[in-house]
Design a protein that fits this description.
By secondary structure, the protein is mainly alpha-helical. Helices cover about 65% and strands about 5% of the residues.
Amino acid sequence: MGLLDKAAEKKSEPTKVEVEKPKRQRRERKNKVEDVPEAIVAKTKPKRQRRERKKRAPSEPKVIPKEFELAGRLNRFAVGLANFIVNWGLIVTAVVMSAFLNANPTWIIIGGVLIAITNIIALPIFMGRNLGQFVSRTKYINSKSERPLFLHALMNNLNFPLFLLGLILILMGSGNGDYALLGGGVFAASILLIDAWLCKRYLFQETKQGLWDIIFNAYLVKHVPSGDETGWLAKLEGLGDFAEQKFKMNK
């Protein structure tokens, strides 16, 4: 019996070792997981969620700055009349001479075109204002108290030729039955009508903005000379002094 008991004890010992081995392996695996470098763990972390988009601040309202005063009716009339005479006076005279007097108006037309280019393009670029604005002591500014884009001065002075172009296209289209020309003429002619009638009288009575003023965010305001002007700028400002004395536009 003693031998049998010893043999039974020997058989039972390996089973204890076999049972204990898996437990040690599990502990070793846990230790390995704990010893993993932080850099590797960081890579395995899920990606951060996208940053929330910042809400845009509401845009400032486009209104006339408080330090400026809108030009009056007489000032506006002076701007339109002076610019019309300067830009198109000679050209209209040349057309009338050619139609009724059978004269050769070539040089008059060339002179009129040069004067129109000077007043529509050159003066707004170098002086910031055209002759009509110097005479009426006015200027255009936007809601940031800055000069409007140059295209505003250009388009604002092209209403009359666009209107004439529209009339010509209407006459050409109505005579030949060409609806494309007729439609283009109606569109071009309506530009002046919208500018002079709809916008100024009904839609924008307070700001007195025309079609191009609305598009370019421009306001016609009164101009006050600084008194430090010299050269050609001083001479142009002198036109405003003459107009104020004769027509009392400052009242």
